[in-house]
Design a protein that fits this description.
Largest sheet: 5 strands, mixed
Number of helices: 11
Bound molecules: oxa(dethia)-CoA
Oligomer: single chain
Order of helices and strands: EEHHEHEHEHEHEEEHEHEHHHEE
Strand content: 25-35%
Structural class: alpha/beta
Shape: globular
CATH topology of the largest domain: Peroxisomal Thiolase, Chain A, domain 1
Helix content: 25-40%
Length: 328
């Protein structure tokens, strides 16, 4: 019997502090109206507590996940953490999450594919289930974007927020779970969306800090043009590949970068916005957090056997889509 990797639980965590458009108006030369119409964002969450990082967001989601499924953390075989804001350069945030969650029998690693990280990690993890190698895998997508955002740069600070989520993957023999994926990357896109300093090419110096090079740098319009085409193409491609017609799709669960990109993707798929999970207005772009947060918040809408398409686009460039048949 064919084994597929089913999502058997999903939970999310977003920090309490709400950064509104009105507050941003006092920080940079912007307006609530501009942010709403260009992005669809009304507010985002910020992890304010000193000494807390991405693992603290993730572990809240993982703890809830374990509780919800009624399992012991000791049963987790592997934890993959998709993030661009690891607690530190090394060790991997996955190791820190496992330690904080008491997942003492798990091994783990981080995966960096910017905003597509969660879908890359989901597909990677599903292979360990399909091959029968492991029984329980946690896939985390989480970011503390506020740690790499320049709150003097109106091009980026209005977009991003902090948050994350986690899914549990387990074997399924009913044909539900992660069924297919179309994943892509194009490293020549790196020039348009990156963090200039802090890596091996340009380690931190007094100058890199003074030049504000430890923050997200984004050429918004260029990224928008690629994102709007590529995310829609990948979502349409997975439908063709799996002979899915618009009426076969229960929901599109897209990366939340810009409402206009999400609308273009839905249009390309031939589905109405009533079939699209959107929460960008509340959280902005949480990078690796967007899709698991959407899944967690919308899970009450999903029925067993529902066809979901997940789609993302991010720095790298990276992009893709995943076909998931909901399992519960
Ligand atoms: O998640 C990873 C992938 N990232 C994305 O998918 C993001 C893709 N890009 C976008 O979502 C959009 O490009 C942005 C939301 C970032 C920007 O929207 P845009 O419609 O592309 O605006 P723009 O950058 O072309 O700027 C239009 C104008 C400019 O002024 P001028 O040159 O027309 O006078 C900007 O200086 O808006 C100005 N502007 C702002 N005005 C008020 C830029 N940022 C702001 C701001 N408030 N926050």
């Amino acid at each position: 019997m064919k084994i597929t990797a089913a999502i058997t639980a999903v939970e999310a965590y977003t920090p309490e502090y709400i950064l509104t458009n009105q507050e941003l108006e006092k920080m940079v030369d912007t307006s609530d109206e501009w942010i709403r119409t260009r992005t669809g964002i009304l507010e985002r969450r910020i992890l304010k507590e000193k000494g807390q990082g991405t693992s603290d967001i993730a572990v809240q989601a993982v703890n809830k996940l374990i509780q919800k499924r009624g399992i012991s953390p000791l049963e987790i075989d592997l934890l993959i953490c998709a993030t661009v804001t690891p607690d530190m350069q090394f060790p991997a945030t996955a190791n820190i999450i496992c330690d904080k969650a008491g997942a003492k029998n798990a091994w783990g690693y981080d995966l960096n594919a910017a905003c597509s990280g969660f879908i890359y990690a989901l597909v990677t993890a599903s292979k360990f289930i399909e091959t029968g190698t492991y029984q329980k895998i946690v896939v985390v997508g989480a970011d503390k974007m506020s740690s790499i955002i320049d709150y003097q740069d109106r091009n980026t600070c209005i977009i991003f927020g902090d948050g994350g989520g986690a899914v549990l993957l387990e074997a399924n023999t009913e044909g539900n779970g992660v069924l297919d994926a179309c994943l892509y990357s194009d490293g020549s896109g790196r020039h348009h969306l990156h963090q200039k300093a802090g890596g091996s090419v340009k380690p931190a110096t007094v100058e890199t800090v003074q030049n504000r090079e430890h923050y997200v740098y984004q050429e918004g319009q260029t990224v928008f043009k690629f994102a709007v085409v590529k995310m829609a193409e990948a979502a349409a491609e997975i439908m063709v590949k799996n002979q899915l017609k618009p009426e076969d799709i229960a929901y599109l669960v897209p990366h939340q970068a810009n409402l206009r990109i999400i609308q273009a993707t839905a249009e390309r798929m031939g589905i109405g916005m009533d079939k699209v999970i959107v929460n960008i207005q509340k959280y902005g772009n949480t990078t690796n957090g967007t899709i698991p947060i959407c899944l967690a918040e919308a899970q009450h809408l999903f029925k067993k056997g529902d066809n979901l398409v997940l789609a993302a686009f991010g720095g790298g460039f990276t992009w893709g889509s995943v076909y998931v048949k909901w399992a519960y």
